[in-house]
Amino acid sequence: MFRKIQLMALSAMAIMLTFIATANVSSFKWFIIYEPELPECLK
Amino acid sequence: MVHALARKLAKRLGDNLHSSGAKIDVYAYGLEVLLMTLITLAVVVCLAQMLGSVPTTLIFLAVFAPFRSIGGGGHLSTYPRCLFFGTCIMVGFGYLAAINIEPYILLGSVTATAMLALYTIVKWVPADTVKRPITDEKVRSRQKLYMLFAVCIWLVIATSLTQYGLHNYALAMVMGALGSLFLITPWGYWLLEAIDKILNRMRGGEANV
After folding, report:
1. Residue of A17, A22, A25, A42 to mutate, testing the B interface (most B Cβ within 10 Å of its Cβ)
2. In angstroms, what CA-CA distances link B73 with A35, B69, B89, B133?
3. Is B137 part of any domain?
4. Cα separation of B182 and B89, whole Å?
5. Are residues B18 and B105 in the same domain?
6. Which structural domain range is residue B160 located in?
7. Each residue's pLDDT tens digit, B151-179
8. Are residues B107 and B158 both part of a single domain?
9. Chain B partners of A17 at a C-beta cutoff of 8 Å?
10. pTM
């Protein structure tokens, strides 16, 4: 049961991070004046 | 440091979910952007709280962030430099916006900033970087249009705040616009490059891109 909840939480986090990453590829950063290195698969 | 931490956490997340290497790279990039944004905001809000200028700093950010997101602008080559310089701009301008200003000077500033914004849109928006160049003419025109729309909204709100006597909030909006517009211009790029060059000479580092 705990493992199932943990997996769901981690999956939700992964989806959120993927969304942030893809959203930031197509726009400039909001609050930072530094451009982190883009991963190859997002170029 | 943030890069290494993001990579480590992303690797752990990827291992738990049995993700591919490419997916882990995406998680790491997303986490890096998220952590940098949260750290910057936390430092800015804490310093603004200490200086007693939270409302004006938040209004500054509410203008600076969308203008920069749409219009682009120069970047520094490392995150610690970005954190230091970005915090100075955000907290400094937020604090300065708390000064007393005559309504007619404020209205003049709003008008002058709006004209400067229009010139910047025509001439330099979107201000891209070597890491993320924008060459597609359609995309460039769309960004100009979005920026024009943002400036129109900004002008309506800044003028309304001036009319309702909320001069400090209107001044914070003017400063937010001026700060982001400056970083779009070649002088903004020049300043960030100069900061990078000076710090590179002092400590060593990569070139500004």
Report:
1. A17
2. 11, 9, 14, 11
3. yes
4. 11
5. no
6. 52-203
7. 999 999 999 999 998 999 999 999 999 99
8. yes
9. 10, 13, 26-27, 30-31, 34
10. 0.85
